[in-house]
Amino acid sequence: MQDSHEIVIPSTPSGRQQAEDIIMKKVDEFGFSEEARFSIRLAMEEAVVNAIKHGNRFDKDKKVTIRYGFNGRTFTLSVRDEGQGFDPGGVPDPTAPENITLPYGRGLMLMNAYMDRVEFSPAGNEVTLVKTTGED
Asked: Domain tally for the chain?
């Protein structure tokens, strides 16, 4: 990953917001379209909120590590928490009628809908999001 950076934040909303502001300033420099910037921001927010809420369970002593970079065509963002991890395949489809009122699964759905690639670590405590510029 060229132009690679790492930010470590506490499991707090203010930590999340500061990291997102820093990363989005960089994304703006990369020259992505407005649509791609929206996709990156939305997916990043979902990933970081999930890390804070579900992974670290709002424990302010636990950190979230965010790595990001751009290689001229592809933006890659990884979010890792200090939780036990989970099996993303075990999360029920939030669009299924029986799950519509359940309060989980929508963040994963949004990440998959807005990014070109979404991968989870085997331990389930790190997600990697990829967005390409769409240019050849």
From this structure: 1
Q: Above pLDDT 90, what percent of the chain?
A: 82
Taking each helix axis from N to C end, the angle separating 13-30 and 34-50, rounded to the nearest 10 degrees, works out to 150
Q: How far is CA 92 from CA 37, 45, 69, 110, in A?
A: 28, 21, 31, 14
Q: Which domain holds residue 90?
A: 5-132
Q: Tell me if the pTM is above 0.85.
A: yes
Beta bridge partners of 15: none
